[in-house]
Amino acid sequence: MANNLIEFRNLRTNFYTSSGVVKAVNDVSFSIKEGETLCVVGESGCGKSVTAMSLMRLVSPPGKTEGGQILYKGQDLLTLKERDMRHIRGNEIAMIFQEPMTSLNPVLTIGDQITEPLLLHKGMTRRDAKKRAIELIELVGIPRAAKIFDSYPHELSGGMRQRIMIAIALSCDPKLLIADEPTTALDVTIQAQILDLMRNIKSEFNTAIMMITHDLGVVAEMADHVVVMYAGKVIEEAPVHELFANPKHPYTQGLMRAKPILNQRQDRLYTIPGQVPNPVELGNNCYFNDRCEHCMSVCVDKQPVLTTYENKHKAACWLYEKGGEVS
Amino acid sequence: MTTPLLEVNNLKKYFPIQGGIFGKTVGHVRAVDDVSFTLNKGEALGLVGESGCGKSTTGRTILRLLEKTEGQVLFNGTDIHALKKAELRKLRPEMQLVFQDPYSSLNPRIKVGEAIGEALVDHAIMSKNDVRDYVKEILTLCGLAPYHIDRYPHEFSGGQRQRIGIARALALNPQFIVADEPVSALDVSIQAQIINLLSDLQEQKNLTYLFISHDLSVVEHLCNRVGVMYLGSMVELAPREELFKRPLHPYTQALMSAIPVPDPTRKSERIVLQGDIPSPSNPPSGCKFHTRCPYAVDKCKSEIPKFQDVGGGHFVACHLVAN
Fold it and tell me: Which of A138, A189, A265, B320 is the most buried (most CB within 10 A)?
């Protein structure tokens, strides 16, 4: 049994906006095991990216991580000094972002950007760093690595830039790779290439991946374990096969039915009525109650707790309250 | 046979590339390179392809939001690109566009009621007094509430804004709507709502759609016929069921297999295409797809394949299929 690499415990990150406090991450707990791919799914604004940013300690004002713990190898990242955090960030935990266009510095060459973490974290000499950088560029499947080393980001296509981002993230052999919607901005044929690459990296280096996505197709293909978020809360969590075979939360069920699937055309798509609630005015109830077709009176009165059921399946929904145990 | 609502014949749209100190034209981006198809009334044609394949440019050139380079666009028999400005303006209410980004396609300082009604008054279809009630009606039709009429765009969510965009296109009672990636910016649960709305409206009003999208599964849902574009050319065009059951062009096959299926038990046999899409300013010779095609033979490099019917209205441009 693999050990927990990262453990989120009751994490809370709030944003202080002019219209009120937004609880972007509201009491979130889950863990990522070594060498595992964990996917966080949810729609925009559900707090999936903020969870990852909290882990990297990159939440900037008006946002603030105000409660809970994030344990990495038994150490709480939230209490680390900024200096110590810098040793972890980009070194043991690396991140790639959605927009490969904006996350590379346009005035530095690709080589400068890949060697930077090697010089900083690994203390390599320039010559060694260059050698390693060229290896990395080849590793992520870009031909003519030596030439790419001296090019600038604008000379590369979107898919190639995302490969470079992955190369930078991999440069220090991280234990955990956070990928925030890494393929959303890419075309499907390029997306297939990048997903393939990430799968290879995982099997070759045993890197744990925390992948943030809104696409259930990507989840099915990549994940070992899935966390579903809605309005800042984890509402369901399960191993990937269990989740797709037996989704418990009405929101998860709705998401699966609402997505048009190739070669499974229905006359009418299932829709989840309404929209995501305003994050400022959340009460102490199930945040999904007004969109849920199974809504009961208890759903409006009380918030369901994330409860563990059979097959490591957790859900926060009053429908399953009998038979589960509160974790 | 009745005349089709829209007939596109050998449409080309090249954008000049300027270079040098005198801004001389040094080349052309062939955004749309010899595209032909017809669209009957009440039909929904999907145009799919990856970014840069010219699907949006095709949509815009058809509406003459861009001037064509060559070819012909017949709308109800009239050549749109031969019309004078005033004549074109008269025709505009018949053909409308729904944009991808519901955030940037609405003016933040104009109330949605005005944004929707503006065109009606402008085209003198309605007087200012009647417009308000009509706009309320249209809002209801598009799944919004009549009281939304005096609100500003920032008060709406993404899905609602897309409904406003659709309401604005619909207000003029058009026959033909070009929808350019109308659901790409939306979340799954909202996307399904908008797809259903578009298909309801089509049924109620007998609308004709040109639906531009990069997402084959969305297109499968909404369209009766689907065209696949690659680097400015149409590579395959077929009725929906035919295309999805029997994709013939290697690019269509790769595109379909690349879509992740939300079923972890299914091991997909994926055709992963190597490399990137070539630049449309300097497209490969012969079949434009030959640089990435897993089945390419010598002939593909030298000879441009004909876009021809292989039976049942299934058009494809591939040397391997033709034999």
Answer: A189
Does residue B191 fall inside a structural domain?
no
pLDDT at B105: 83
Is there a domain that residue B306 lies in?
A: yes
Q: How many domains does chain B have?
A: 1
- For B302-319, the pLDDT digits (tens) are 999 988 898 888 999 999
pLDDT at A175 over 70: yes
Q: Is the ipTM, as predicted for this complex, more than 0.90?
A: no
Q: Do A258 and B268 touch (CB under 8 A)?
A: no
Q: Note the pLDDT tens digit of each residue in B247-279.
A: 999 999 998 888 888 888 876 677 778 777 788
Please give the model's pTM, rounded to 2 decimal places: 0.84
Q: How many CB atoms lie within 10 A of CB B114?
A: 16
Whether B256 maps to a domain, the answer reads: yes
Tens of pLDDT, residues B284-296:
888 999 998 888 8
With 0-12 CB in 10 A as exposed, 13-18 as middle and 19+ as buried, what is A281?
Answer: exposed
CA angle B317, B319, B321 (to 5 degrees): 80
Asked if the Cβ–Cβ distance from B188 to A219 is below 8 Å, we say no
- The span from the CA of B142 to the CA of B200, in Å, is 10
Question: B269 in a domain, yes or no?
Answer: yes
Cβ-contact B281, B56 below 8 angstroms: no
CB contact under 8 A, A196 and B272: yes
Q: Which of residues 109-148 of A touch B (CB under 8 A)?
A: none
Question: pLDDT by residue (tens digit) across A208-236?
Answer: 999 999 888 899 989 999 999 998 899 99
State which residues form the domain around B310: 233-323
Q: How far is CA A69 from CA A8, A311, B281, in A?
A: 6, 26, 53
Q: Report, as an integer, the average pLDDT of A10-17.
A: 90
Average pLDDT of the residues in A28-54:
90
Q: What percent of chain A has pLDDT over 90?
A: 26
**Does residue A275 sit at the B interface (CB-CB below 8 Å)?**
yes
pLDDT at A239 over 90: yes
- Non-local (6+) Cβ contacts of A288 within 8 A are A230, A231, A235, A249, A250, A251, A299
Q: Write down the H helix ranges in chain A.
A: 48-56, 82-88, 110-121, 126-139, 145-149, 158-170, 188-205, 216-222, 240-245, 250-258, 297-301
Could you give the domains of chain A? 4-92+172-326 (3.40.50.300)
Rounded (to 5) percent helix, strand, coil in chain A: 35, 25, 40
Cβ-defined contact of B260 to A44 (cutoff 8 Å): no
Q: Which of B195, B220, B221 to probe by mutation at the A interface, max A CB count within 10 Å? A: B221
Q: Any CB–CB contact under 8 A between A1 and chain B? A: no
Pairwise CA distance, residues A15 & A59, whole Å:
9
